[in-house]
Design goal:
Elements: H1 7-33, H2 36-52, H3 54-57, H4 64-85, H5 104-117, H6 122-133, H7 138-145, H8 149-175
Length: 176
């Protein structure tokens, strides 16, 4: 080998580094990240950086193992800092199902209903909001509104009838 390793020499160096330090580097990265897949990415990035700095590693100054472990730790730290300042990645959000299909029709329908609700009386609107938007039972809505359950039922009936009439008028205007 000369002063600056060629591409062939650098590849040989990386293979040698992986053979000699790969397992311990992976174990160290796994302890730091707590995730085997992330640790494998860290090891890969560490070896890429070793390949880029092959000339520094072949000079014989310092410990190669120490250099690799320091680089791995720095990569983990950099990724943690980057994750802290970025919004959550899609893969990190497990509790929400993936978005499927086009929801624009649902959004338009909601907007039409909300507009139609503005055209019914306040009492009818309150009942519909309690029953359909907040998902409350008749008894819960009655308690919240301070009226008997029978009143909630009748207001719901008349509110839905009024809402249908308003929406039928909206559809007639749209079709003109």
């Amino acid at each position: 080998m000369g002063d600056t390793p060629g591409p062939h020499d650098a590849e040989t160096l990386i293979r040698t580094l992986y053979a000699e330090h790969g397992r311990s580097l992976l174990a160290y990265a796994t302890r730091l990240t707590g995730d085997r897949a992330a640790a494998e990415d860290v090891v890969q990035e560490t070896l890429v950086r070793a390949w880029k700095h092959a000339d520094d590693l072949t000079t014989g100054r310092g410990s190669v193992r120490g250099w690799l472990l320091t680089v791995a730790r720095n990569i983990v730290t950099d990724r943690a800092r980057a994750r802290a300042v970025r919004p959550a990645e899609v893969a990190d959000v497990v509790d929400k199902p993936p978005v499927q299909g086009d929801h624009s029709e649902s959004v338009v329908n909601t907007m039409v209903v909300m507009d139609a609700l503005d055209h019914v009386s306040a009492e009818h609107r309150e009942v519909l909001v309690q029953l359909y938007y907040r998902g409350r039972s008749v008894a819960e809505a009655a308690k919240e509104l301070g009226v008997p359950p029978g009143t909630v039922k009748s207001r719901s009936y008349y509110a839905l009838r009024a809402l249908r009439a308003v929406m039928a008028g909206s559809e007639a205007e749209v079709s003109r």
